[in-house]
Write a structure and sequence with these properties.
Layout lengths: L8 E2 L5 E2 L14 H17 L5 H6 L1 H7 L2 H4 L4 H18 L8 H14 L11 H14 L11 H15 L6 H17 L5 H8 L4 H6 L1 H13 L1 H17 L12 H11 L8 H8 L4 H16 L5 H4 L1 H8 L7 H17 L4 H11 L5 H17 L6 H10 L5 H20 L4 H7 L3 H7 L10 H24 L4 H16 L4 H17 L1 H11 L5 H15 L8 H13 L6 H16 L11 H18 L7 H11 L4 H14 L3 H4 L1 H17 L2 H14 L3 H14 L10 H13 L1 H21 L21 H20 L6 H14 L12 H18 L3 H4 L4 H8 L7 H16 L20 H24 L7 H4 L4 H10 L10 H18 L7 H12 L11 H21 L34 H9 L110 H15 L25 H4 L48
Antiparallel strand pairs: 1-2
Helix pairs in contact: 1-5, 5-6, 5-7, 6-8, 7-9, 8-10, 8-12, 9-12, 13-15, 14-16, 15-18, 16-19, 19-20, 19-21, 21-22, 21-23, 23-24, 26-27, 26-33, 27-28, 28-31, 29-30, 32-33, 32-34, 33-35, 34-35, 34-37, 35-38, 37-38, 37-39, 38-39, 38-40, 39-40, 39-41, 40-41, 40-42, 41-42, 42-43, 42-44, 43-44, ...
Length: 1290
């Protein structure tokens, strides 16, 4: 090529720079536009040159060096930089294989410069995009970056390049751009000496789900790159996973926490990428860390279960190791394994044989959720294709129809029903499939004969039918009223309720509205419907009515009429298609045959007594739903026969049937009346307690002269009460209690003297017998002493008496509440003479707590229950006896779910977070879910409820919960992290359920309530700084939890919450409380959930400390004993209850007070558990540290060690350390000189609570869950405790 003569320009190093023809010198003295113009000509010149142009190469070498100067590489103008980069790329092409730049630093600067220019590829609509594409194409074609292999820090350049290319790729790029990027990166990977971890990270980061979702094109680019370089990059990937999985070096990469996500993606891209990694996963499956095993199981479940995976056949050792996790000791691991089985059965039928045996074991798993998921797994696969599940798998589901848990039984029954419907009724898979599941119909019909309350499907069906009939009856009544806005609103609400009881309530709403319009227009249709739901309608009449209504609504022009189908469904649900007077008469005749002995019951496999009892139970249920069908002399004669039978249950059921159905006996059947009255009197006086209750209620329900009848029972019973014969007291007390409740105007006054002179003074305040000192915390009903049974009934009598009066004019309720509180404070031993047994004390504590809860259901008594009394009642749910906690929680739930109890009682469930038994915590959580759901639904369905939000809105439980936890006896030191962690667990136990949904900005509302509490004082002790500090501390913990769990809590609260004045004072003017009561370090500890240290079986644990409480001493009652307002006294202080020991680790019976334990004490340092598998018949162990459990109690077998340690500490440091305060025991006076040191101990809360054993895992039997630790010998003498008088009238 001939060049016109140009004026050469000297370079800085003295060499002369020759520019292409027509290009003037490029310096910093000219404008950017001029620089760009001249550079474009230079670019054109270099583009046209090839590697063979030796003269030109030599001619333009100084120019090539000049273009790499700082002026160009640091130029602020992006057009200049782009043109220079294009020139440099061409220079590398022209001068290849040797670059004209010899300085390593200069080469690094150049390539980093070129890499930065590649960012311009991002905008495909840019006018300069073609130049950017040319730059990429040139670099990829020449493999220019391979020059960098000679540089020591070439990795920095490659990392920058890879990150740039992955960041700029997008969906507007065509395939050529992607191919050039792949060529550029793959040449670096395949021709280099290896891939460093940082470079590997720049590729793998695009596979992480978060990045994958942000830039799908980068994910695709990384995927293709890995496929192309699989042979080269596999060892590098293997090394990365080896470092993280085997050696545990998570610091080698920022992606260490995403290893399992990466393995899943890499396996999907090409399994060969993980050839060396799979054995490492087998190693991880055997990790001692349960959470780590869970993560590996989740990963492998996806790898084995994916549709096209052949990993199970390619890697049998890993598959077998994975199957072993079905028997893992960690519940979540077993649960995850079972969930995987469903996908595996559907995607890999050939593996069903391997899975069957493991699913069989898990179908008997101790965990309800796992048994439930086994059923879901099998049914899901069966619904997809019946051939996927063999007969053995269906057999597992069949077994679970008899599971002890209703949720599991329901899932099994519903699943089988769905299979039967699909393959038998609809015959979707032919005869063979139908035959395979033909047994399901018989199995499901037999379920109706189960005795469990949950399984009485017929009973439930009749109850639902009765309820729906009443709704329709109320709707028809509304049609009879004049039209008004209130009437329309009430009618709309009733229609919505009816629609809820129909399939697909959403669609049913429209049909129900249409049906209601038809009813309004057609009077004959209304009369037909009224006849259908009338109590006297027979089955034959019902059939005629249904046909007539359907005929009127039918439309011949519309063969498929969804509206008519819905109406038919409604009519079928409310029509008496099963039961009428004829049916009841037939059932009674069958029962008569059993009574007379002429029935062939023995041939049916049941005894006559069993047949009679079962028949009466069925009739009893029907008496609730179809009372008018019983009204016949023949039926009542048969029931009178039952009343005369010796079987107590039969007689009780017969009385209840009379009570439900006998409203017209007095007028229509005088002969039955004259025979029935003396029998009812006899049962009320000398029958069983249940018979007495039903007899009194029966008299009150069906006789017009009930006052005379009840007086004839009341007077002789009240005169004959004798505390010296307690076994003859129980029935009279039951009868007297119910009489005073049903007829308060007549019997409230005479009952007052009975209560004062006998119930309190003679019965409750005296212990006539000495209980059996066997240390058991609970005994079966038949082993409870008659005296204690009488006392329990006496407490119930007090409650029934007050519930009948429904006023507190005589202040009797205040006295009764103080008496019940004293019973709780004294732990059930009101006299404190220590004559009563532990199990009897448990019964009395339960009775007292339940009584307070029962009184709270009456508004006039709820108002006078003090916060202290409410707290005492609440602490029963943390009683040391499992059965007390269980029964109290059930009673609490039953009252709350019926909206009978005030909202503050729902806060009691927060204390269940401390229950050591997992089953009890799960029950409490279900109760909360049910209660919250019912309250929210009630507010939606009842517009008037908005006026009572303070007592209905579930979120309003938060202030009650905060106040209750602030007064928890365990919470003594506001800055103690362990105590704060317990508080946080209790708060979260409730808040987790409340915060499931952010309904109406409820998160912000709860936060606002917690903040507002800090502007008030504790109404229980407003002037006590420590009480207020504890209250504010709990508020801060609540705020900490709410803020950490919800990003929506910072919004403005829709309304200003109202705080209950019973627990909080009114906010003071100018009072500002912006202090943080928990430190930042404590917040982190609470939120990170760092586990508290817990004991391991056999190690020497620190004894569980318990707070003391103030003795609740009684004063001597008045001589006359004329009022319940007598002051109670006791010569002895409160007894203590020893802390329960960890029974789960020793197997000691819960009720043994001084058990003999044979257990070797192992060193404190124990080896980690190696075997993580669990057999099918292995019972759940209690040595796990479940969330919310109490701090671990003294380890079994270490009592003597503790005793020696304590004795030694007394000798060395003085007696102040000898005895730890225990829950339920007043603080002992300290020897002189130690008072100041133990001042905090002596200021412990005044109330005590039974603490549940630390690691119970379930009741097991009547003697499981309440083990008593041996009493330790006190090393100091017990000085007489100071007597403190408390006036119960205060």
């Amino acid at each position: 090529m001939d060049f016109p003569a140009t004026q050469p320009k000297p370079a800085a190093d003295g060499k002369i720079i020759y520019y292409p023809p027509g290009v003037k010198e490029i310096t910093d003295k000219i404008t950017n536009d001029e620089v760009v113009k001249r550079l474009k000509m230079v670019v054109k010149t270099f583009m046209d040159m090839d590697q063979d142009s030796e003269d030109e190469k030599q001619q333009y070498l100084p120019l090539a060096l000049h273009l790499a100067s700082e002026f160009f590489l640091r130029n602020p103008n992006k057009d200049v930089r782009l043109l220079v980069a294009c020139c440099l790329a061409d220079i590398f092409r022209i001068y290849a294989p040797e670059a004209p730049y010899t300085s390593h630093d200069k080469l690094k600067d150049i390539f980093l410069f070129i890499t930065r220019q590649l960012k311009g590829l991002e905008d495909t609509k840019s006018p300069q995009f073609n130049r950017y594409f040319y730059l990429l194409e040139n670099l990829a074609w020449v493999k220019s970056y391979n020059i960098c292999f000679e540089l020591e820090d070439c990795n920095d350049i490659f990392i920058q390049l890879f990150r740039t290319l992955f960041s700029v790729i997008n969906n507007s790029h065509n395939q050529k751009v992607q191919m050039h990027m792949l060529d550029l990166m793959s040449s670096i990977i395949m021709e280099g000496d290896g891939v460093t971890q940082e470079l590997l990270d720049s590729i793998l980061i695009n596979l992480i789900p978060a990045h994958k979702n942000l830039n799908k094109q980068a994910f695709d680019l990384a995927k293709v790159l890995l496929k192309r370089t699989v042979q080269t990059i596999e060892p590098c990937i293997a090394n990365f996973f080896n470092q993280v999985l085997v050696l545990g070096k998570s610091s080698v990469s920022d992606l260490s926490e995403h290893v399992f996500d990466l393995i899943q993606e890499l396996f999907a891209i090409d399994p060969h990428l993980l050839l060396s990694v799979m054995p490492q996963l087998e190693f991880k499956l055997k990790s001692n860390d349960g959470e780590e095993r869970l993560a590996v199981v989740r990963l492998l479940a996806k790898l084995f279960g994916s549709k096209d995976s052949d990993l199970a056949t390619q890697n049998r050792p890993l598959w077998q190791c994975f199957l072993g996790r079905f028997n893992d000791i960690h519940v979540p691991v077993r649960l995850e394994s079972v969930k995987f089985a469903s996908h595996c059965l559907m995607n890999h039928p050939d593996l069903a044989k391997d899975l069957t045996e493991y699913l069989k074991v898990r179908s008997h798993d101790p965990e309800e959720a796992i048994r439930h998921d086994v059923i879901v797994t099998i049914i899901t696969a069966g619904k997809r294709d019946l051939s996927l599940v063999n007969d053995q798998l269906l057999g597992f589901v069949r077994e679970r129809t008899l599971d002890k848990r209703w949720r599991v039984r329901k899932e099994a029954m519903m699943g089988l029903a769905q299979l039967y419907k699909k393959y038998c009724l609809h015959a979707e898979a032919g005869k063979d499939a139908a035959e395979k599941v033909s047994w399901i119909k018989d199995k499901l019909l037999h379920i109706y004969y189960q005795n469990s309350i949950d399984d009485k499907a017929l009973n439930e069906m009749w109850k639902c039918q009765n309820m729906l009939r009443s709704h329709v009856r109320e709707l028809l009544d509304l049609h009879k009223q004049p039209t008004s806005e209130a009437n329309s609103a009430a009618m709309f609400g009733k229609l919505m309720t009816i629609a809820k009881n129909l399939p697909d309530p959403g669609k049913a709403q429209d049909f129900v509205k249409k049906f209601n319009q038809v009813l309004g227009d057609d009077e004959k249709l209304r009369s037909q419907l009224e006849l259908l739901i009338s109590p006297t309608c027979s089955c034959k009449q019902a059939d005629v009515c249904v046909r007539e209504i359907a005929r009127k609504l039918a439309n011949p022009k519309q063969p498929t009429n969804p509206f008519l189908e819905m109406v038919k469904f409604l009519l079928e649900r409310i029509a008496p298609v099963h039961i009428d007077s004829e049916a009841i008469s037939a059932l009674v005749k069958l029962m008569n045959k059993s009574i007379e002995g002429t029935a062939d019951d023995e041939e049916e496999g049941v005894s006559p007594d069993t047949a009679i009892r079962a028949g009466l139970e069925l009739l009893k249920v029907l008496s609730f739903t179809h009372p008018t069908s019983f009204h016949s002399a023949e039926t009542y004669e048969s029931l009178l026969q039952c009343l005369r039978m010796e079987d107590d249950k039969v007689a009780e059921a017969a009385i209840q049937i009379f009570r439900n159905t006998g409203h017209k006996i007095e007028t229509d059947l005088p002969q039955i009346r004259s025979t029935l009255i003396p029998i009812l009197h006899q049962k009320a006086k000398r029958g069983t307690p249940h018979q007495a209750k039903q007899a009194v209620h029966c008299i009150h329900a069906i006789f017009s002269n009930k006052e005379v009848q009840l007086a004839q029972i009341f007077e002789p019973l009240s005169r004959s009460l004798n505390a010296d014969v307690p076994e003859q007291l129980i029935t009279p007390l039951v009868s007297l209690g119910h009489i005073s409740m049903l007829a308060p105007d007549q019997f409230a006054s005479p009952m007052k003297s009975v209560v004062a002179n006998f119930i309190v003074k003679d019965l409750l305040m005296n212990d006539r017998s000495t209980g059996e000192k066997n240390g058991k915390l609970w005994s079966p009903d038949e082993e409870v002493s008659p005296e204690v049974l009488a006392k329990v009934q006496a407490i119930k009598l007090l409650v029934r008496w007050l519930l009948g009066m429904k006023n507190n004019q005589s202040k009797s309720a205040n006295s009764t509440l103080r008496l019940l509180s004293a019973m709780l404070v004294s732990e059930g031993d009101l006299t404190e003479q220590k004559r009563i047994s532990k199990s009897d004390m448990s019964r009395l504590r339960l009775a007292a707590g339940s009584a307070i809860m029962k009184l709270a259901q009456e508004p006039c008594y709820h108002e006078i229950i003090t916060p202290e009394q409410f707290q005492l009642c609440a602490l029963v749910i943390n009683d040391e006896c499992y059965q007390v906690r269980q029964i109290f929680a059930q009673k609490l739930h039953k009252a709350l779910v019926k909206l009978l109890l005030p909202l503050e009682y729902m806060a009691i469930f927060a204390l269940c977070a401390k229950d050591p038994v997992k089953e009890r915590r799960a029950h409490a959580r279900q109760c909360l879910l049910k209660n919250i759901s019912i309250r929210r639904e009630y507010i939606k369905q009842n517009p008037m409820a908005n006026e009572k939000l303070l007592s209905l809105l579930p979120e309003y439980v938060v202030p009650y919960m905060i106040h209750l936890l602030a007064h928890d006896p365990d919470f003594t030191k506001p800055q103690d992290v362990d105590q704060l962690r317990d508080v946080k667990e209790c708060l979260w136990f409730m808040l987790e359920v409340l915060m499931t949904k952010n309904e109406n900005n409820s998160h912000a509302f709860m936060k606002k309530m917690s903040e507002n509490i800090k502007l008030t004082r504790d109404a229980q002790s407003p002037d006590e700084p420590k009480a207020n500090e504890k209250l504010y501390t709990v508020c801060d913990v609540a705020l900490c939890v709410i803020n950490s769990k919800s990003a929506l809590c910072n919004a403005d609260s829709p309304k200003d919450p109202v705080l209950p004045t019973k627990f909080f004072t009114q906010p003071e003017k100018d009072f500002c409380n912006d202090r943080n009561y928990i430190s930042e370090e404590t917040r982190v500890l609470l939120l990170t959930g760092k586990p508290k240290p817990t004991g391991v079986l056999g190690t020497v644990n620190k004894p569980l400390s318990a707070t003391g409480r103030r003795p609740y001493i009684r004063t001597t009652g008045s001589e006359t004993g004329s009022s319940v307002n007598s002051e109670l006294s006791s010569s002895a202080g409160n007894r203590s209850r020893e802390q329960s020991s960890d029974i789960s680790e020793t197997g000691v019976s819960e009720n043994d007070e001084n058990p003999v334990r044979i257990i070797s004490v192992t060193p404190a340092k124990t080896e980690p558990v190696k075997n993580k598998e669990m057999n099918s018949d292995q019972t759940t162990q209690g040595n796990s540290t479940e969330r919310g459990k109490k701090r671990t109690a003294t380890a079994s077998g270490t009592e003597n060690i503790h005793q020696k340690t304590e004795e030694k500490s007394v000798e060395e440091t003085g007696p102040s350390l000898a005895a730890k305060t225990r829950r339920g025991r007043p603080t002992k006076p300290e020897p002189q000189g130690t008072t100041a040191k133990n001042e905090e101990t002596n200021k412990a809360p005044v109330r005590g609570r039974k603490r549940a054993a630390a690691n119970q895992e379930g009741p097991g039997s009547l003697e499981a869950g309440n083990a008593k630790a041996p009493k330790q010998q006190d090393t100091a003498k017990k000085p007489a405790a100071a007597q403190r008088q408390i006036d119960l009238q205060r």
